[in-house]
Amino acid sequence: MYVKQFFWIVISYFAGGLLSEALGLPVPANVLGLVFLFGILALRWIRLSDVEDAADFIIGHLALIFVPSAVGIMEYFGLFQSSFIRIAVPWLGACVVGYAVTGWVTQAAIRIQEKRAGIGCDDDDCRGGDR
Amino acid sequence: MERILALIFESPVWGMGLTLGAYLIGVVIQQKTKIMALQPILTASLLVMAVLSLTGQSYEAYSLQNTFLGYVLSLSAVVLAVPVYRNLHILKAYWLPILLGVGAGSVATIVTAVILGKVMGTDIELILSMIPKSCTTPIAYGVSETLGGIPAFTVALVVLTGIAGAVFGPALLNVLRIDHEIARGLTLGTISHAIGTTRAFTEGQICGSMSSLAMALAGTMTAFLAPLIAAVFF
Which residue of A has its CA nearest to B23? Predict the structure, then answer.
């Protein structure tokens, strides 16, 4: 039932707002709401099916929800024009470095983990062979 | 005639209808042409901008008519808990590579933006606005606000980052020799958030789920780390 699902989502958002006030963290309320919703799922206070459909509905239409904010770019055309290089260089650099670091670190760590798991197996094989 | 036009333009239904209609056209164009660069959000935003300029309406008025979507936007960060919970088994099996990769990537992209911005002499306000550029829009908006950036400018950069990632991301990953599907999905989601995730799903289910997991993790990590990093540099 969508109403119940949206209820849990709104409650989580509200809890995030309360947490944000109570903890005084410089973290947006909706991020704390995300953490809260994950928490109550992980603690099994609610089931995945209690929020799943509504969540998938929202996630499936994220781009639509972004449109009004994206249209806000029109207020900054002048800024983009006057500081184009000063915006473009750090932006592009940050994107490329972000791709390289995320990808390389993840891949290297996965390879090390899989290799370790692999060596563990080989050791067992060796032991088996010695006997 | 003018009175009727004024009545139409002042109605909240007009602004929201414009958003829905433009997005619908964007989706149809993407489906027909199958060109990655023609993301519905890009087509839709350009269409709305064109209509607003042609009819001489202000962005402020349009934005006000879309207050409801603004509220849903803010809520939409919360539901990202669902892809994280759903992929908990992969997260458990690969928790170290995933947390290391997303954490290192999020920090690296922020630090690079700040350092290059300082080198280029970019305004502090603009650099601060650039820090959450890899977060998904609802998180980026809040982080930008918290840091003292310009949230609307941040959203512009977020959309550009997403579209650039959806179009060039996979090619860049090939150049960087990142071929493990978990690493590819994780990278697209960490840097190019929701729009990169739609592209990641075209590479496969694992790549896509990893991307949505990474989008939530990277957004959350950035929200917690950005104020600390900003405090170090400014």
Answer: A64
Averaged pLDDT of chain B: 93
Contacts of A28 in chain B (CB under 8 A): 77, 139, 141-143, 145-146, 223
Which residues, including other chains, have CB under 8 Å from residue B66's CB and lie 6 or more apart? A68, B15, B16, B19
> To the nearest whole angstrom, how far is the Cα of A122 from the nearest Cα of chain B?
20
Number of residues that this document lists for chain B:
234
Rounded-to-integer distance, Cα B218 and Cα B30, Å: 28
* Residue B99: both structure tokens together: 């947390």
The predicted complex's ipTM stands at 0.90
Find the largest Cα–Cα distance for chain B: 65
Q: Give me the phi and psi of A29, to 5 degrees please.
A: -60, -35
CB-CB under 8 Å, A34 with B77? yes
Is some CB atom of chain A closer than 8 A to the CB atom of B53?
Answer: yes
- The answer to whether the Cβ–Cβ distance between B194 and A56 falls below 8 Å is no
What are the pLDDT digits (tens) for B158-202?
989 998 999 899 999 999 999 999 999 999 999 999 989 988 998
Which residues lie below 8 Å from residue A49, measured CB to CB, with a gap of 6+?
none
3-state SS assignment for residue A43: coil
